[in-house]
């Protein structure tokens, strides 16, 4: 029988639980309704972007334009609503704008074959330029009241609506990745694109859908963000860009592709959220929080790398 | 002083779970060519890696170089002692010049701020190349050179380091017959200078052509060291595998039912030209020829991943253009590529995920979700029928031996219920026992009505499985032979000279070899 071993994800879940208990015990104000609510309201937007990033990374790519896609959607929604279009129309247009951005990334990456980091670096600057030329750098507001409920409202008076949206998309992503042909192909391409192509998989179509799906998640995140902040501007969510990469890799996603799970990414997002909130409550200044996050991330990555090396070595020798 | 340059005794190497080397001895004399041979997994590479300082042997090993106790803990120790290793896939810096490649590593680490002495570098390179009688502008970037030329650069580098021992790992695997001849001449020259050479190869004829002595390993154990004169090929094979194995030439005649595939004048510039042939249900067509003769490119064109420029392809009597691998699978064409590890399998993924990949579409339920149980059952079915070991559907494909990996790839393609199976180098890097098993399997599949194209460089293999043999040369079909008339000799005539009738020089023939 198999030796008892814990997956990366369950270890991460345990760490999240320990962090939660320690912070609740030792940081005054952490385990209070107000703080817990704050964290729950902040989590969905970050979580959605991290999931989007995770999927792209599993294919061996990266999407540096992801937060600017969110900003594009957000600005589109804001413009529509401030010009008097109904909320639902605005949301649909926002999602379409996001998908169009994803289509640009997907086309250049999957059909032409340019490397994702270069393409999305380019489209990041492109989208930023487009937004700036529309907004002239200012923020747009004028959302309807019902729109602000998406990011600020509660379901049944206790659960934030945005958390429900997040859980829905997290489950959807998990099912798509684990149970569908597309999801399986995502992992396969990330592990070995040539062998996948030679197995009769249309790699290009799979990648196209990956960038479209990531863009859609970004658009959903932008709905939550604009609703919460009641405004949209060029740097909407831009601080989440590198954080989402961090959360994906802290969550066990392999940066060279082939492995990554929804649950791991969610645990990582929760850990980041708690650390940031807890340290903030302790009065640690923002720059120092960043330093600590950096140190944690590097530590985890080094540990993963060393663990991988040892496993690889064992595997090689077993095959020899 | 003894006449031994290198004496390694009581060499063992234990990896977790595996004893890769068990009390092996290996002694090389000054100025000899010493062949190190054994099946895959016999421990050759492990031994070479210990010699190179990449692995550390277990306790108790003794390691003498020039009669003195040698401490080789890191690769640089080996280099400084005068041991150079030329790996199969070469280790040159492709965008640096010939001179830089030959000189590199000379004063690495010492005074990194020191200015590069370009004149000295070029002189050293020129001198080394002169000794090999290899004329080339030392400023040429290495990427512009052929594989054979690059190999000479590696040898020149070894000379420039005053190497006393040069290890060549499968040096001829990507060389043409003429280039192999040249390499032999270089080896003789090195020998005359008193340099010892360890030659690692699978190709028996080649080993007999150059080696003075053989050391045979089997399953990590030392079998013995022999003088080249006291052995013949059969004896050597027996020593390697511990039993006598020969492939029988195929005598079964395939069914040759209706025509499945027909190519007419298929052409792709630089790959293959004017290819026409038919494949019938139940027959195996062998395609052979030298590496680089366009065989693989042709196979990939049929599979839809290498689009031909012109020509016609007919499938079941209907003209068709295969647009993608996906399209090929839909049309019942399966392609098992040459490199199992990089093209055939996704090593980190489980056997199940590998086997089901081409037919995931058919394993979905009404919601588009994969039926996992059905998927695992499918994998189990092929694991059982093909006798894959270990028979565990959730093991990673990378954990299996070469032969079992190949069975998994075959299983993966059988699951698509193909009508045509193209298999490129079916037994590359597989142990002899497993090879015969794969051959039998192919014959069995043909008997069940599959049309099979087997691409192989191993003539005994082509002869063992095919009903008909096509020989390719420079992208064209140089000849077609029925199995009844085919022999290694007339195939080689077509492959090397493009005709059946010409006489062949013995040394040319020797270079295209029986491999095991």
Quickly list its features:
heterodimer; A: 320 residues; mainly alpha; 2 domains; two-stranded antiparallel ribbon; 13 helices; 2 strands; 1% strand; globular; B: 516 residues; alpha/beta; Rossmann fold; six-stranded mixed β-sheet; 18 helices; disordered C terminus; ABC_transp_permease (chain A); membrane (chain A); transmembrane (chain A)
Describe this structure in words.
The complex is a heterodimer of chains A (about 325) and B (about 525). With about 325 residues, chain A is an all-alpha fold. Chain A has two domains: about 40-265, no CATH class; about 285-320. Chain A has 13 helices and two strands; from the N terminus they run H-H-H-H-H-H-E-E-H-H-H-H-H-H-H. In chain A, strands 1-2 form a two-stranded antiparallel sheet. Chain A is globular. The mean pLDDT of chain A is about 90. Chain B is an alpha/beta fold and about 525 residues long. Chain B is built from 18 helices and 20 strands. The interface between A and B is medium-sized, with 28 and 42 residues. Chain B: It is found in: Cell membrane. Chain B: InterPro entries: AAA+_ATPase (IPR003593), ABC_carbohydrate_import_ATPase (IPR050107), ABC_transporter-like_ATP-bd (IPR003439), ABC_transporter-like_CS (IPR017871), P-loop_NTPase (IPR027417).
